[in-house]
Write a structure and sequence with these properties.
Blueprint (H helix, E strand, L loop, with lengths): L4 H9 L2 E6 L2 H4 L13 H4 L2 H4 L2 H6 L1 H17 L4 H12 L2 E6 L5 H4 L5 E3 L2 E8 L26 E5 L8 H13 L2 E5 L10 H8 L3 E6 L11 E4 L2 H13 L6
Parallel strand pairs: 1-2, 1-6, 2-3, 6-7, 7-8
Antiparallel strand pairs: 4-5
Helix pairs in contact: 1-11, 7-11, 9-10
This protein binds 2'-O-acetyl adenosine-5-diphosphoribose (OAD).
2'-O-acetyl adenosine-5-diphosphoribose (OAD) binds next to helix 2 and strand 7.
Length: about 250
């Protein structure tokens, strides 16, 4: 993969780089994306049946089982070269802000400590009522697990359709988008707000936009550099071209 020289110069000189990742970065770890036409989760399942507060109220067990199945896939997955390349960028620039829409925790497992999770994390659970408890739960074959403190159903600590994003995460992501010199959009279709608007917020404040994706997206016409390919190939190539050999050699 040829990385444009202008881009390497820009990255080397940047005081602050921000990156937004989506399901595409974890595809090479074996996790399914949402909107890929054949293999995406939303090609097979309807979000309104599984990923909304109404769906959970209607059938908590169905929703729980679906997330338990996804949690299992996440626990078997390993970070890939794309995740490690971003960890490497974090070591090379004075300030690096990593923002993800993914709930799989693979960035943390690749060594990223200060991650902004816009859509929560599938490995955590919380009480669906307002008691706020996040304790332990028991898997039961015939029922969704319940909060040990108040007895309400537990739910995955993720953002569902129709729910607000976590305020602190959103504020931190917006601040990063508005102050970064370069904004990288990696493996996301850009179909879901508010995450998709971050790239535009960055551009409006003068940041250069760089996109890494297998395919063009609605953002592509706006970006300064479109690097087409797998993030597990392109991101390490970007790190090597910019800063020399990284962790993957
Ligand atoms: P999508 O499934 O919408 O988009 C995945 C993107 O990754 C597509 O643009 C693919 O072309 C690209 N892609 C696939 N494999 C890739 C690879 N190996 N390297 C680079 N790019 C690749 O996933 P997201 O944009 O993450 O929200 O979806 C955003 C949100 O929609 C998710 O967080 C989820 C979903 O509904 C909630 O559940 C709230």
């Amino acid at each position: 993969m040829d990385i444009p020289h202008d881009l390497t110069v820009l990255l080397r000189g940047a005081e602050h780089i921000a990156a937004l990742t989506g399901a595409g970065i974890s595809a090479e770890s074996g996790l399914r994306t949402f909107r890929d036409t054949q293999t995406g989760l939303w090609a097979q399942y309807r979000p309104e049946d599984l990923a909304t507060p109404k769906a959970f109220a209607r059938n908590p067990k169905l929703v729980w089982d679906w997330y338990a199945w996804r949690r299992e896939a996440v626990s078997e997955a390993r970070p890939n070269a794309g995740h490690y390349a971003l960890t490497e960028i974090g070591r090379r620039v004075p300030r690096f802000t990593l923002i993800t829409q993914n709930v799989d925790g693979l960035h943390q497992r690749a060594g990223n400590r200060d991650l902004i999770e816009l859509h929560g994390n599938i490995t955590r659970v919380r009480c669906s009522a307002s008691c706020g408890a996040v304790t332990s739960w028991e898997e039961r074959p015939d029922e969704a697990p319940r909060c040990v403190r108040c007895g309400a159903f537990l739910r995955p600590d993720v953002v569902w359709f129709g729910e607000a994003l976590p305020r602190a995460a959103l504020d931190a992501a917006l601040e990063a988008a508005r102050t970064c010199r370069v904004f990288l959009s990696i493996g996301t279709s850009g179909m879901v707000q508010l995450a998709a608007s971050l790239a535009y917020a960055a551009k409006n404040r003068g940041a250069a936009l760089v996109e890494i994706n297998l395919e063009p997206t609605p953002l592509t016409p706006k970006v300064d550099f479109f690097l087409q390919g797998k993030s597990g190939d392109v991101s390490p190539a970007l790190v090597r071209a910019t800063w020399g050999a990284g962790r993957d050699g």
